[in-house]
Structure formats: structure tokens, C-alpha cells
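[agent] plan:
  1. take the single chain provided in the ticket
  2. run structure prediction with default settings
  3. attach C-alpha cells to the ticket
  4. add a short note for the reviewer (M.T.)
[agent] executing step 1
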Amino acid sequence: MKNPINERILDEVLSRVRPSEDEKKRVERVVQHTIKKINEIATEMGVRCTPLLVGSVAKGTWLRNPDIDIFMMFPVDVSREDLERTGLEIGKRVAPAWEERYAEHPYVHTKIDDLEMDIVPCYEVKSPDQKMSAVDRTPWHTEFVRKNLKPEQRDEVLLLKQFMKGIGVYGAEAKVEGFSGYVTELLIIKYGCFTGVLDAGARWRRRVRLSIEPCPREVFSKFDAPMVFIDPVDSTRNVTAALSLESLATFIHASREASKNMKLEFFFPRAREKPDPVKIREGALSRGTHIFGIRMKRPDIVDDILYPQVKKCLLTIQTAIQREGAEVLRIKHFCKPGWILILIEVDRERLSNVFPHPGPPVWHENAETFLKKWRDQGYHPFIRGDRWMVIVKRGFTTPEGVAIHALRTLPIGKDLEKIAPSGEVIPWDDPSIIDELSEFIDHRMPWER
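[agent] step 2 finished; step 3 output follows
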């Protein structure tokens, strides 16, 4: 039986996210204009290519202010070099302002009539099995959804997309590591409706294994990921490969919470309150821990290259601090225009001046080498159990010192390594990071604020 309270909430969500008739006409006008222009430019250049609208706009599953995806399908006998060169040239001539971006190969990002648009070259393959580049399967994705998603289910996709946006797990890009738009459509096809997906999600565990049609066990065994959803147009692909364990866990928890008590905040979380410096300071001090930040310049690279390096950097710093005997309670990054901030909370403000360094067992062939090395440096090894041990002076006696040293000397990604010398320690009570500190110590979920 339908819950009238839930129905009222979901109707309210749809009224906010469903495109208006005027917006639909505007998007249609921009799409037709762009396709016509691509055809004109291709004809002028003597190039064989077929422009095709793909993605959520083509499938009728787009939220307001969509990103438009138009693919230019080239014959398979065109070389990869010509595909990229010609595809970029046509894309750049479509609009006066553009940006060159990269996936497996370069494409053009532009804005027309304030609508974001990607113009992507691909091969016109006869089946997904014959794909020559990763994007060649996208037109097949579009066709599959158009054939299998019922018209009345389009609103269900909108609800699921907005729910995922609200809880912070929508988008397969490296910045989010969440669910792609295509995955939301497949989930609705599989479970029928938005609440059906939530009911299923509430029962998921760590290793989720899904497919539209039954798949042999060996198909799933090829993948090692928290969630495996077999692509219905390409059984060699996991459509949730980009999904992180944390995003999956967040969706499971949110599904359970929403199933018990649906509320508008799952879809449209309240903005964080303006931080009160006094309360933030009191909250930080009451923890009895040590919080500090590291701020450095942001390299001029795209997000999909930046964020994997930032996450590698966080792991490197955390490992280095914990290797010195301090416990990292939390570490979080904030990527802003022009700079990156890493906030770190550890269980102590200072490290001991010395630490125990274990050596080999007394009967080991390297025992004499160990003794000579440390005695030559003025240390006095001793036996603990059956092993030699020596108390060694630390190179750094603060977590900040360890973190900066790790930042500047250990592998953190080639682009971050170039700007690592710009890294500087920022005290937790620096007024310039009050917003980030407030978010850092507030562990509430988006819908709980």
C-alpha cells in the first residue's frame, strides 16, 4: 500500500527536478542546432561522420540544467589519429568558446545557451563487442535504456538521481566515486521503481552482485569490486567499477534510513550553518586530540587526474604518521580553486624523542652487521626476547613534521610532487579554514544536518 506521506514528498521532489516544458524546448533547440552545425562542418571538410545525441537527454532521464552529450560516429576504417584530430577540429568549430578534455581520447567541452555540452568522437561499431575505444559502447547504452525503460519509469530515475545527489554519491567521476547516470537507469530497470531500489539497497552487503539478465557465476568472478553490475550490452564490463566502498556503504545506510523515515532532506540537504568560530574552537578543543592542516597550490589539471593523486597523497601521509606511532583519527581533503587543503586529526600533539627499532634475531646472519651499524653511530643495542633492539632518535617529533616530510619525499603522484614544496602547515584555528574545519569535525550525514 502506498504511503501518502512518502508520495507527497516524492511529488515535491519531482516538481523541483523535472524539466519544464520551456526547458525541454530550449534543450531540443540547442541539440538540433548543434547537430545541424556538425553536419554542415563535416560536409564542408569532406568528412564522413554521423552526429548522435546520447546520454540522459536522449533517454529522457535528465534533471534540470543537464549536460548534453553529442557523439560524432566515424566509420571504423578511419584511423585513431584521424578520429581524434578530425573530431577535435569539428568540435572546436561548433562553438566559439571550448575546452579540450580527455577520457580515453580527447574531446571538446563547450557551453551553448548556458548549457554544458560534450562533443565526443567515437567509432560507429556494429555491436559493442567490436568496440575500438571505450566510448564506442555509449550509443548502445542509450539504445538499451530507450528500449527497456518504460516511459513512466523516467520519473523514477529522476528521483533516484536526486536522492544520490542529495546523499553525495551521484557521479562516477574520480571526485565522487559514486553511481553514474547509466547505473541509476539500470537500477530502475532491474527493480522497477525508486522505492524498489531503496528496498533492495537496504538489504545489500559489501559484495553486491547484480545483472539485468541471469549471469553465470564465472562472469562475476572476473571482477573484484565492492559492487559488480554487469553491463547488459557488454558482459566484460562492470558498470559500477568506479564506485568506492565508502559510496556504496553510504547508499546502503541512506536507503535503510529513508525506508524507515522518508524526508525531503535526503534529496535536498540543508546548507551547513555559518560556522561559529567560538563553538568550533570549543568543539575542537573538547576532543582532546591534535588537528592541523597542510595547504598547497592546486595544479592546473582536470579533476579526473587530480583526485586520484590527492587520495594517494592522503594515504601516504596517513601511513607515514602511523608508522611513527601516532594514530590518525581522520584525514580529509578539500580541493578549492587555486589550492588544496588537507586536514588531519591525530591522537597526540608530540611524538617521543626516540622510538624502538627492531633488529634481527641474535642468531641471524645479519646480527653482526646490525650491531656494527648502530654501535658505530653511538647507539647501544640490547636484546628483547630473541631479537636485537635499539632505541633511535626520531627525525621529527611532531605529526606536522612527519606529514611535510612525507609530502616532499614520498610518491604522491607526479603532478602533486611538482607542487609539494608549496605545502605549508596551517594551524587548526587559522580563520581562513574555519569553513573546512567546521565540515571536518561535523560527522553528520547530509540529511541529518
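[agent] step 4 note for reviewer: The longest strand covers residues 115-123.
[agent] ticket updated
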